[in-house]
Amino acid sequence: MKSAIGLLARGAAAIVTTLFLNAQANAAGTLREATIGEPPPLDVMVTTADVATAIGRHMFETLYAWDSSYKSQPLLADSERLEDGGKTIVIKLREGVQFHNGKEMTAKDVVASMERWGKFGARGKLLMASATSVEATGKYEVTLKLSSPNGAWKNLVSDVNGGLAIYPEEIASKATGQPIEQKDYVGTGPYKFKEWRPNRYVELEKFAGYKPRKEKGDGFAGARVANFDAIRFIPVPDVGTRVSGVQAGDYDYAEMISGDLYDTLSKDKSVQVQRTNAPIFGLFFMNSKEGILKDNYKLRRAIQTALDKSQALRVSFGSKDLWKAEGSIVPKDTPWYSTAGIDGYSPHDPKKAKEMAKEAGYTGQPIRLLVSTNYQAHYDQAAVFTRQLADAGINVQMNVVDWATLIKMRGQPEQWDIFVTHHSFFPDPILFTFLNASYAGWWDTAEIKALRAELVNSSDQAARKATWDKIQALIYEQVPVMKVGDAYTYDIASPKLKGLNPNGPAFWNVSNK
Amino acid sequence: MWAFALKRAGATLVTLWAASVIIFAFIHVIPGDPIYVLLGDTATADQADRLRTELGLDEPIVLQYLQWAGRALSGDLGRSIFFQAPVAAVIADGAETSILLATMTMVWVVLIGVPIGTVAAMRHGTWLDQGLSGVAMLMASVPTFWVGLYLILIFAATLGWLPSSGYPSIFEGGLGNLRYLLLPSLTLAAPNAALILRLTRASMLDVAREDYVRTARAKGIRPWQVVTRHILRNALLTVVSAFGFTFAALMSEAVVTETVFALPGIGRLVVQSILRRDYPVIQGIILVIVVLYLVINLLVDLAYRFLDPRVELQ
């Protein structure tokens, strides 16, 4: 018996040794990023999913792009000219820009892309709804005519996320609302599509025909130089595995690391921590169409008065470096920072809240809060708030579902009173979901209607900022939505990488030391 | 014999049809659809409605079933909404990982479970037996994600001997890629080996009480030969039947291990597909699994009948 076990043990040892000897180094020149999950199809014009954006922006480019301080700088555009009080926008394109299929980009491609974006793009309507015509007025010149000026136009064409990515005419003109096929992933970016292995990876390879802009790379703007031969985006759903993978050298970059690991990883020499400069923020939407909170603004204010947002942020994000209890909807150090109404952000006064609720005619009826467990932070925040509201005598019933169910249910106004989500950073308030009257929540009072029109139709920045101050004050008065606070997500990278992009994962201009 | 086989096959087809209806109904009963997963959270209602129509997801559920069943009958499982690729290809790719992982795990299960179970049985009642049984209980109780993360931490992050995660196909990188499955298979093997260990031990103790074992001993056969030839060989009959169940379960239920090690296997694929409501993939995988079980059952039934003609179909 002993000899039989010995034999088995020797056999096992032999297998293990063979496997070790076969260990091979990673193919040189491929950057491997561990993503949180599989992306949906990479047609960035129709999808706003972050995983698709992070990959897609290497392949597809926009007319303008945000620099590291989130100002729009020309990318595929060369210059622009506004006529007719801002109602006519003439964009001059860069010459000599090549698509991945070898064709040169001209005004025709831009016009076809704009038309598809206006019809099917996730954010296309915001600009194209007021378009009266879009034409190629030269081989490299596009003229867009609007029925009224749009002060946000440049921001609207500066990001690939649901945005105006430029596709070749023959692809854009036949594309519908369905995501385009993989064979049609043809853009002008520094990397081009190579292959997609379901459940394994998406691989992009360097595009040899790319000619970077002359300006120095800054954020997403300026020169884009591909230093790696290829980039592989690998879905690694477990955060512990993403971290160990970078420590072990199996990945060069891993995104979305959890807050509880921040302090340890900040001191760990085997990784470098990359905190974003663009905070996301949690949002609790109130139902403005139906139910107990429909137009009872006093009760909504009572709810917000009971809350201590810092506590929810601490529970959901951990380290103090990763969150800020900020009442301004847009963070500090941006042109849109505003203090209007922020006294109402996080008073944490359960006694006062109780009185306000009583005055609002509230007698303990259940308030249905819809939240998903797919995002741990959403659930944590909802749990903390439910507890705090109980202290103020406000009876919240949590309805916990998965994300796909939440999205379905939030479209049905009779199903909920409050739902939880979060919002990405945007450098222009026009893109905020709560200003969209058709987004779940359906905030469309007379006051916001008027202010919304004012915000869109003015092209003067000072005037637009003054309008935004009024909108933020109104948000704290009517409480269509409660901001939880700013959360700075962070990624980790191999210490060998340099030139990481503070705007978010983008791997042009990144190289090995 | 032929009448029996035909009747049995007919019953299998009816079961398959019933299963297909249940699969389809259950998946469509849960709320949610893949639209917002494709388009992202901020898609407008208009945009979502239009895509729903383009994908045919707003058609009556019965019609959707008939279309799917019709195609499935001709061997076409449809296209994944999410991957924009044929479901059959997506499943085949996942199956490679799952089959290899399950096989490798079974190797560990046998190498660990059977010999240690035998030793425990032979030293029945001693401190060694107690100790080994304790270790087995511990292995069966520790959560797999915890074991997995620690193995990664030790063997990948600290020692750097093995890759931390992922699995590139052996058809592209050669057999050497099996090293990617070493840690995951050990993780999965721990609780299953514990089970087999306990089973081997119990089964051997049963057999050891049989008369023929006493006779063998009385004949003066060497003790280790009694153990290997008479006890173990007979005890293994029970254990081997447990291998089948374990293997089948490993194929489809290794979700946690596949997630921790970022393996492109069937378990993770089905869970992710449910979360993103990729209906064709969910239906395809469950159908394939049902077919596999049905075929195995059918073969077993036929084999029984072949071995023992007295078996009648009720």
TrEMBL record, chain A:
Report the Pfam families cross-referenced here. SBP_bac_5 (PF00496)
Arranged from A to Z, the UniProt key words for this protein are: Signal
Q: Which residues form the signal peptide?
A: 1-27
The cross-references to Gene3D superfamilies, in alphabetical order and at most eight, read: Dipeptide-binding Protein, Domain 3 (3.10.105.10), Periplasmic binding protein-like II (3.40.190.10)
Where does the record place the Solute-binding protein family domain? 73-429
The superkingdom listed in its UniProt entry is: Bacteria
Where in or outside the cell?
Periplasm
Task: List, alphabetically, the GO terms of the cellular component aspect.
Answer: ATP-binding cassette (ABC) transporter complex; outer membrane-bounded periplasmic space
**Matching InterPro entries, A to Z?**
Peptide/Ni-bd, SBP_5, SBP_5_dom
Report the PANTHER family cross-referenced here.
D,D-DIPEPTIDE-BINDING PERIPLASMIC PROTEIN DDPA-RELATED (PTHR30290:SF38), PERIPLASMIC BINDING COMPONENT OF ABC TRANSPORTER (PTHR30290)
Member of which family? Belongs to the bacterial solute-binding protein 5 family.
Designated name of the protein: ABC transporter substrate-binding protein
UniProtKB/TrEMBL annotation, chain B:
Q: Which InterPro entries match?
A: BPD_transp_1_N, MetI-like, MetI-like_sf
Instruction: Report the residue ranges that make up the ABC transmembrane type-1 domain in this protein.
Output: 95-300
Q: Which Pfam families match?
A: BPD_transp_1, BPD_transp_1_N
Keywords (A to Z) from UniProt: Cell membrane, Membrane, Transmembrane, Transmembrane helix, Transport
- Quote the cellular component terms of the Gene Ontology held in the record: plasma membrane
Transmembrane residue ranges? 12-30, 99-122, 134-161, 181-199, 231-251, 281-300
Localization per Swiss-Prot or TrEMBL: Cell membrane
Q: Which SUPFAM superfamilies match?
A: MetI-like
Any GO BP:
transmembrane transport
Question: What topology does the record note for this protein and the membrane?
Answer: Multi-pass membrane protein
Q: Its family?
A: Belongs to the binding-protein-dependent transport system permease family.
What name has this protein been given in UniProt? ABC transporter permease
